[in-house]
Amino acid sequence: MISLVQTKSNNGANYVNVYTITPTSNVTAGSHLILTLPLDAVGYTIASIVDTQLNTWTLIDSEVSDSKLVYMYYAENVAGGATTVTVTFGAAQFADVSGIIREYSGLATSSSLDKTAKGNSGTNFVQNHTTVASANTTQNDELVVVGAVGSAVAPTWALGSGYSNLATQDG
Questions:
Q1: What's the pTM value of the predicted model, to 2 decimals?
Q2: Order of strands, edge to edge, in the sheet holding 85-89?
Q3: What is the rounded CA–CA span in Å between residue 171 and residue 169?
């Protein structure tokens, strides 16, 4: 069974080239970490992501919406212990970033990412806008992670039948 172990947001790293985030508690060996990085503007690149346990970080996807950018990365089957994740942006790039890191247990220990999908409203200040992105799951106990970025109005979420919301958090 998939479980959310912990979540931590780190708001307000104003215009930095190197950004760090540390989960609240030690990470459990074999779990997964998912890092969501909402940025204040488009055009930023990620030069590297490393952590103190030397886990491998893989890009899930990135998306531009409402003149903002969000990156999502994951590390699977991680080493346990105190973990600090360090994100370095491209040369001479200083991002206003609010990261969110989540630890999940109960996922496959390898090849855990099988599908991605994304949608984009492409419109500023849209209220009650639904952007549909789909990737049909093919088995039970799959984790669906959503990253969204925008401004003006806090988003609300409506889940489809058969899904449970493990966490919602503003960055």
A1: 0.81
A2: 18-21, 85-89, 46-51
A3: 6
